[in-house]
């Protein structure tokens, strides 16, 4: 929050994920227009991260600022994608989907990436 950079070095399964999830969730809760894009190298890791986020959000999410995290990858059903693009404020994806499913269709994502232009 002070705009300072930090480095975290710690062992496996020691809570590093909270180091970025908490500030991101804080921003999403404070600003209903905020969005976040998480990019993980594998779909399995993305699914694990989604499960952890959903568990964390059961404690802190509010109806006034729904976050609705979702994965957006090759396994995401085509009929679910428009809803995810419209409603989710925290998208979890991988480099392949970023290059094949998001960037080529950037006009479908204008509301999500509005401040990144």
From TrEMBL:
GO molecular function, a single term: nucleic acid binding
> Alphabetically, which GO biological process terms does the record hold?
interstrand cross-link repair; nucleotide-excision repair
Q: Which SUPFAM superfamilies match?
A: P-loop containing nucleoside triphosphate hydrolases
Identify the residues that the record assigns to the Helicase ATP-binding domain, covering every copy.
Answer: 1-117
* Gene Ontology CC annotation, any one: nucleus
What is the protein's name according to its record? Helicase ATP-binding domain-containing protein
């Amino acid at each position: 929050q002070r705009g300072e950079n930090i480095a975290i070095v710690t062992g496996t399964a020691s809570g590093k994920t909270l180091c970025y999830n908490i500030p991101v969730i804080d921003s999403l809760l404070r600003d209903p227009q905020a969005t976040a894009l998480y990019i993980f190298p594998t779909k399995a890791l993305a699914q694990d991260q989604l499960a952890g986020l959903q568990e964390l959000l059961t404690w802190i999410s509010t109806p006034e600022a729904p976050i609705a995290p979702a994965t957006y990858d090759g396994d995401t059903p085509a009929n679910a994608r428009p809803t995810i693009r419209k409603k989710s404020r925290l998208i979890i994806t991988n480099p392949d989907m970023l290059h094949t499913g998001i960037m080529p269709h950037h006009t479908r994502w204008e509301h999500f990436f509005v401040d990144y232009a």
